[in-house]
Amino acid sequence: MRIGRLFLLLAVAGMTTFTACSNDDELTVTESTEQARPVTLDFDFNLSAGGLKRAGRPLYSSQALQQVNDMMVYVFKENSGSYTYTGTSYDITAFDNAAATGDENHSLEIETALTDGSYKFLAVGLEDATTYSPIAFTANTTTLEAAEIQLADAQKAGEFFAGSTNVYAVNAETQSLGVSITLTRVVAGVLGYFKNVPYQLIAANGSMKRVTKVAVQLNQNANKAAFVAPGTELTFGDGSAYTELMSIAFDDQAAKDEAKNIYTCAEVTTGSEGNPAKVENSFLVGGYSLPCAALTGKATMKVVLYAGDEALKTYPVQMESSQTDFALSRNTFYGIGHKEADNNTTGEKDPDDGDEDDPNPGEEDDPIDLSKDQIITITVNANWEAIHDLGLGNAE
């Protein structure tokens, strides 16, 4: 479903819809018909993913690839010192990737009409529009600073890019505007790479119980909604509950070494899409989170080992500074364990290629060993703007 049909755009009296094409790209324009002068908008879209070379989806390393399939552009006009949504939007269909790609550029020409004044343009690009609730910006009310997007019910975060422009003036002399928009990730990426997952652990009642799942959890203030424009991140709830970001499940048929009390799997030296290279007895999972502010005294993330619904062992995730109540920043990659990027064509581990996509080129894979208590380190890729080392605190 195209994002333009999914999003609930305000039906303003006098709205008209038309299409225009340039450079073989398609778009649908919805705009108000208040008194305005004709203006040609020459859009130059740059989706800045930070990496080009390799495949690796879903999130199996710190590679900064993207797959934006749906994009909208919204028009905001200056009003009493703030930029407010005008009710005009453009449905861009150029970003419709059949496969994961990195940086991407499109040029589009739009014939439209704008009243005199100062404008900013906001672009929002998604991988899957059904992941997020319909955008309902209200004409003449929603400001650019307050514009936000929410996750749909029971959905987990997916790729989400956004970007806004500098100020563009429309007056009697204006015939065309060259509008340049660079979109960057709004979401954070999180990788979980674990080895030697215990087969059994002692439960609270003293009995031995089989580990059925390793879950990476987020404080309930995370993963709910985000401002589209960068700024102060949203905070939800009191931090008393956690939601599951991603997990690795083990059924009773899973391979195991009862003598070593661990789940087992063979080393994968030549990986493929969906089955990346990894070391022996290791398990890999990745996902996205919307950014969130920290809650003082509340751990932002946890790694929990479960037997059914019973938590057998819990590790609070921490920064190298031992801080557990940290913010999750947009366009930032957090890795619990280190996963070396795989070769683009063969899927082979390639630790010595010096690839600029990797924050620690030449390092071997280093998954977190869950058979012992240790600090679990989380890293952040520079192509995602920042790198952070996180770890697991002492098990609870």
The value of Rg in angstroms is 23 Å
Bin the strand percentage. Answer: 35-45%
Structural class: mainly beta
Number of strands: 26
- Count the helices. How many? 1
Q: Percent of residues in helical segments? A: under 10%
Order of helices and strands: HEEEEEEEEEEEEEEEEEEEEEEEEEE
Q: Enumerate the spans where pLDDT stays under 50 for 5 or more consecutive residues.
A: 1-24, 51-56, 343-362
- Taken from the alpha-carbon principal axes, the silhouette is elongated
How many distinct folded domains?
Answer: 2
Cα-to-Cα separation, first versus last residue: 44 Å
What's the average pLDDT?
Answer: 77
Largest sheet: 10 strands, mixed
Summarize the structure in short:
The chain is mainly beta. Helices cover 1% and strands 40% of the residues.
Walk me through the topology.
Layout: H1 3-6, E1 16-22, E2 25-31, E3 37-47, E4 70-79, E5 82-92, E6 104-114, E7 117-126, E8 148-150, E9 160-164, E10 168-170, E11 176-185, E12 188-195, E13 200-202, E14 208-210, E15 213-219, E16 225-227, E17 242-249, E18 256-257, E19 262-263, E20 282-289, E21 301-307, E22 310-319, E23 333-336, E24 368-369, E25 378-379, E26 390-392
Parallel strand pairs: 3-11, 12-23, 12-24
Antiparallel strand pairs: 1-2, 2-5, 3-6, 4-5, 4-7, 7-9, 7-10, 8-16, 9-11, 12-20, 13-14, 15-17, 15-21, 18-19, 21-22, 22-26, 23-25
Q: How would you describe what is shown here?
A:
By secondary structure, the chain is mainly beta. It folds into 2 domains: 3-185, Immunoglobulin-like (Sandwich); 189-392, no CATH class. It is 1% helix and 40% strand. The protein has 1 helix and 26 strands. It has one helix at 3-6, and strands at residues 16-22, 25-31, 37-47, 70-79, 82-92, 104-114, 117-126, 148-150, 160-164, 168-170, 176-185, 188-195, 200-202, 208-210, 213-219, 225-227, 242-249, 256-257, 262-263, 282-289, 301-307, 310-319, 333-336, 368-369, 378-379, 390-392. Strands 1, 2, 3, 4, 5, 6, 7, 9, 10 and 11 form a 10-stranded mixed beta sheet that branches. Strands 12, 20, 23, 24 and 25 form a 5-stranded mixed beta sheet that branches. A hairpin with a 2-residue loop joins β21 (301-307) and β22 (310-319). The longest helix has 4 residues, at 3-6. The model is unreliable at 1-24, 51-56 and 343-362 (pLDDT under 50).
